[in-house]
Amino acid sequence: MRIRRVLLALVLSLAGLTGLTGLAGPSAATPAHRVAYDRYSLQVDGRRILLQAAEFHYFRLPSPGLWRDVLEKEKAAGFNAISVYFSWAFHSPAPGEYDFTGVRDVDRLLRTAEEVGLYVVARPGPYINAETSGGGFPAWLKTVPGRARSSDPGYTAAYHEWLAHIDPIIARHQVTRGGSVLLYNVENEYAVNTDAAYMQDLQDTARTDGIDVPITTNDCCDAASWSSTWGSGPGAVPIPGVDDYPQSFQCRAAGTTWGPWGAGVTERVRDDAPVFAAEYQAGAIDLDNAGYDACRDLTGTPYTKYFPKGNLILSGATAVNHYMGFGGTNWGWLGQPNDVYTSYDYGAAITEARQLTAKYFEYKRQGYFLQAVPALTKTDASAAPVAAGLETAARTNPDTGTQFVLVRNGSTAPVSSTLPLGGTSLALTLPGHDAKVLLSGADLGGQRLVASSSELLTTAAVGGRDVTVLYGSPGTPGTTVLRYPSRPSVRVLAGAVRSAYANGDLRLDYEHRGLARVSITGGGRRPLLLLLGTDDTAAQFWRAGTASGPVLVRGTALVRSATVAHGVASLRADTDAAGAVEVFADARRVAVNGAGVRTRTTASGSLEGGLPGPRRVVLPALNGWRQRAEAPEAQPGFDDSRWTVADKSTSLSTFPPLTLPVLFSDEYGHHAGSVWYRGRFTGTGAEKTVQLNAITGKRGNYLVWLNGRYLGSAAGGVQADSDAPANPSPGEGRFAIPGGLIEPGTTAVLSVVVQNMGNNDDWTAEDSRFRQPRGLVGASVDGVSAIAWRIQGQARVDPVRGGLNNGGLFGERYGWSLPGYADRAWPAATSSVAPGVTWLRTGFGLDLPRGQDTSVALRFDGAPPNRYRVILYLNGWNLGQYGAAIGPQTDFVLPAGLLRQNGRNTLAMAVIAEEPSSVATPHLVVAGSQRGGVPVPDVPD
Ligand code: GAL
Questions:
Q1: How confident is the model at residue 721 (pLDDT cuts 50, 70, 90)?
Q2: Rounded to whole angstroms, how far apart are CA atoms 124 and 142?
Q3: Is residue 237 within a helix (H) or strand (E), and if so which, with residue range?
Q4: Burial class (CB in 10 A: 0-12, 13-18, 19+), 867
């Protein structure tokens, strides 16, 4: 181990050149950087980094133009990194086939991260979990021998193939080569199986593939796993990470539950590596179908203050990844069926429709603070001052003496107390479930902060003075003490602030209310404009770095970036309403999105002007639906001679088939969506019952016909894993055969369409979960000795949309989901559908305002239907599944780029009905609209 670590240090130092990277993220200014770390933090070119990452899954946002939008929003909240799983399944529809183009262009993703200025924690698995089908394992791996997530040769050969494709892309984007990738994460919560040779091979393979940044892994259950303290053998990673989800995932409990999964204090597991919170809960999967708004409440602003912010001081973590920063969409058959439905919104700070929530602004308050005080990158736990009725904890930077004090109120009622800090006594009131990190003994720009009961948002040196923003809960008392060599001159520009100077300390007392402004000059220091706000008024500030220093902006809905040149501060910014904008910049003029803004100079020395809001958006009504029933496969005379004969007698699944032949769809190369079966047998006329078993994964179903007569449907099974104990007859359906349906001595045809809802994950690394079959697992007709089967699934991999977009419905096989399909001969929709599969299609034109980001969704009114389910296609992209058995979701986001914002669009709905039904059609809604945005090119068909 020692030798390996020394070698690594050598490699890292050889790879490094010169140049400094700012705390705010990677810079393209110098080609390559040196990465190192110690027990306190990561370092780039010797500069300590406080890594504040937001988890982002490119595969859940199939419009590369929008990647930049989300990444810029993360950056604008003060995150300086994203953490990214790379999904093997998303890139590989079949062994040896890999696609990194279009919506799969991860090189573009990493370039975008570089351009935006975000570090990347690269997480290529091979196992990623993430509520993805198979936990990221391609379904074809089910047919590869050898236990997955082990050093078995069969599995090893398969994942070597994946790493050989993904590693070179990641490697060329490492910080050490001038890129953004700062950490490489092997495996995912690999705590159940303990195959050290496998963990070691993942790291050795990465090194061989050119990965020279530090390697990490995220542990869940035994924090010490895969650290040197856990075992002296191979497999340990240099920087172990730990996952923490203190609030769990029962979103219905929002408001009543507080940390059922522990205190959420990330453990230190190695003395020679920083504390890394590899996944810190920032939202939740919706395990109890409460809807994601409830998940956002469960993990809302109080949680975000109390847990992740508190954890910073309690654990000293200097690298944190917040899971998720933006969740996105389980489009196509990407999702794992047990825990999620189409939306993977996650209750994250940025919604699936890319809108900023209240929680986003809490992350922003924290993110700006973390970047404002470099002393936080090196701290030790220290004695904390006591505040009666409140919990306190402290950390101190050993070099600067700067102290960080956590003050928390775990009760639901407000608590008022006093805190001795910096030699003074601070009056404090904390609302229920609130937490603050207070500072003492800090150099902030040209100022010296003795202590404050207000939290620091940011400080910016603008035009020869410091502009510092402090904040607290509205209506609570605030005190700030600053040190001066001599008495300064204090001018209160706005608000009620009392000041007193004695013995070098300037003491300011105030109540947090609105935005007070205090100008302090003289006293032997650089001038200071102190802005004293509330949580809300502080969070209105945007900070953007420019080559000539930072810019602060207030009044816009977002600031994406800024430059200052020739006296003009040019902002790329979004507005969601017309209103005032205030800019603190070393500039005389302001331009926003390329247009000059008429401004005046305020008493605060800022520039103030007015900005227009977004233009009104009128969306077209969706009408003109056409309708066509399909499922000719149900008819006895249907020609299935080109379908695959299903006659296997063995399978690698740990689940034994209930009858032979093996009918598991993966055995015949059909891995996603619906699969058709046709079985022939010679009847006697005496048959009474068809008995079927199908495993679909949770939320799935299947429909059955005999000689063209619909016999009924059944719910598909879930089998033999920790979510569903072994069931001798999973997904059972018994269907009575009507008298006279089978003529004696003739061939009868049984037709079955089974939905595959995606594969289970393999979280426990024991194969039985992800290798669980999909499709029919048992089929018999009483008195019939043999049924001859054929199977048909997806006809081909869609070259643009990929292998997870389509299943094998007739309409999917014949292009009914695609925009170019000629449906003119289809009759006008009646919306009445018979049991089976029926398609509805319509088109609509859009001409959304340009230079404006309008997020559009499709909405079904009322509760999701019980007896039919819908697969939704926008321009051929499978963007959702709707139905009561699937989930509570009624809004489906239509991402710009897939949605032709200025052109024609085609919507198709495949309706799978268990009973005669009347189908509700959806309408378009605006999920958010801002002037600004980023250009989003159409994703080519
Ligand atoms: C973690 C896992 C993630 C994701 C998360 C829940 O345990 O590492 O991949 O599944 O739970 O959303």
A1: low
A2: 19
A3: none
A4: middle
